[in-house]
Design a protein that fits this description.
heterodimer, A: mainly alpha, Methane Monooxygenase Hydroxylase, Chain G, domain 1, 3 helices, B: mainly alpha, 67% helix, globular
């Protein structure tokens, strides 16, 4: 278990090094802000309306389908590791499992969910 | 003849550390922090080299010279660029979301950096060999998506938000075929540990999984397509499409914050190539030359492939991108997974 300490310490080291480079850059760089410079960039036009707006819900539908497939990936990882010892039963089982999932995907496909526009 | 292996240097360093008489919890803390600092140094050198290499390759593809002024064929051009970026003013938009805007580049880099704990650079050259190695890489590199969304949201800019949303949609879509192509390899290796995967490919060249799997080339090609999309590289670089989104999620970033996104992009490119080498091309396995040199050479060849993609193919449209992932790659990779498992059960491989 102690080897997972590496994850924590690498994260600490990574964040630390990035913040140190930001600090070094702060010492070296000029600092001269004025209102026109700090305006949101919008192709040399003044910004129209707020930027935090409602979004195309396609993005969320794809995220939903992704969640289903990602949960399935969690089931498939242990299956793949143990497949050598499990044999035919596991193969049939996973084929059925994937068929049910892909039935859902094809249903979404036929309903036009996967179409972007 | 003894091969020049780097692990002797590291075991010597470890003995040196033990001889100072440090107790156990602190010993591993110091070891991992030092390894983290070394890894950061190595990754910076690799990223600087890759940027220079990419510029040279793009130049030669287009029959130009590329950087020529700084040293032999401009070899220290990117070092000068890094120094320049260090001195650039940090322009901050007034109406940004301060917290999110600041931490996005940090998280982006750390997510790319954490993957290097389990990447086997050579025989014995791995920071920690987790028994869930490849699953761990898939888990931590996913944080890149969050950081890009944070950058898009925090900038309070329509282009940036659109770029962030697109990159999230693209990366989650290509995550599925990537996982499915990796699973085929796991079925044959029977382990998630990166060291075990490499060791199960030792011996001759036909033990490499790209040759050993029944449809190894298909698994590799689908993996490399998904990996290109995961690393936001052309032809899948919709999130930063220069002609429509100007620069996507990093439009409002400048100076060192931009440099962190840029560094993370090249580190990610090296990560996906290193995973491809570990899974399909036998990792550090080779003969005569030291193992770390084999690993580095193979990885740079895969990186070269990604770079040639960039300069050969035009960018896709966003609808083509998503439909290609869900209607073609997902069914293909899962079919390949089932066929691979069936062949494994029947014993139709060597």
């Amino acid at each position: 278990m102690s080897e997972y300490l590496a994850v924590l310490l690498f994260a600490v080291a990574g964040i630390g090094i990035v913040l140190i480079t930001f600090g070094i850059s702060r010492l070296l760089r000029p600092h001269n802000p004025y209102p026109e410079k700090n305006v949101t960039y919008e192709c040399a036009e003044e910004t129209v309306g707020p930027s935090w707006i409602q979004f195309n819900n396609r993005f969320y539908i794809f995220a939903l389908i992704f969640v289903i497939f990602d949960v399935e990936a969690i089931f498939l990882f242990p299956w793949a590791v143990a497949f050598g010892q499990l044999g035919l039963f596991a193969l049939v089982e996973v084929t059925l499992f994937l068929m049910i999932l892909f039935f859902g995907l094809f249903y979404a496909w036929k309903k036009g969910v996967l179409k972007w526009v | 003849m003894e091969r020049l292996e780097l692990k002797h240097i590291f075991s010597w360093l470890h003995d040196l550390l033990v001889s100072t008489g440090l107790g156990e919890p602190w010993l591993s803390v110091v070891t991992y922090l030092m390894l983290g600092a070394m890894m950061f140094g190595a990754l910076s050198v690799i990223a600087l080299f890759l940027v220079w290499w990419e510029r040279k390759i793009s130049a030669h593809v287009q029959q130009r010279f590329g950087p020529m002024r700084n040293g032999w064929h401009g070899w220290y051009q990117t070092i000068m660029d890094a120094i320049k970026l260090l001195q650039k003013e940090d322009v901050r938009v007034t109406n940004r979301d301060k917290f999110v805007f600041f931490w996005a580049p940090v998280i982006c880099f750390v997510a790319a950096f954490l993957a290097y704990i389990v990447i086997p650079f050579g025989d014995g050259l791995i920071v920690a060999d987790f028994n869930i190695g490849i699953l761990y890489i898939m888990a931590v590199t996913t944080f890149t998506i969050i950081s890009l969304l944070m950058a898009g949201w925090g900038s309070n800019n329509k282009y940036a938000l659109l770029g962030g949303m697109r990159s999230a949609a693209q990366m989650v879509s290509y995550e599925i075929p990537m996982v499915a192509s990796i699973l085929v390899v796991i079925v044959y290796s029977g382990s998630l540990s990166m060291v075990d995967i490499v060791e199960s490919q030792s011996g001759m060249i036909f033990n490499w999984f790209i040759f050993k799997l029944p449809f190894g080339p298909i698994a590799f090609i689908t993996y490399i397509i998904a990996a290109t999309a995961e690393a936001n590289r052309v032809p899948f670089d919709l999130p930063e499409a220069e002609h429509e989104l100007v620069a996507g999620f990093n439009i409002e970033y400048s100076g060192m914050k931009f440099a962190m996104f840029f560094l993370a992009e090249f580190v990610n490119m090296f990560t996906v190539s290193a995973i491809a080498v570990t899974l399909f091309f036998g990792g550090w396995n080779g003969w005569l030359l030291p193992s770390w040199l084999w690993f580095l050479g193979k990885t740079l060849l895969v990186v070269l492939l990604l770079m040639l993609f960039r300069w050969s193919y035009p960018r896709l449209r966003v609808d083509q991108l998503m439909e290609f992932a869900w209607k073609f790659l997902v069914p293909l990779t899962f079919a390949n997974l089932l066929v691979g498992a069936a062949f494994k059960y029947l014993g139709w491989y060597w």
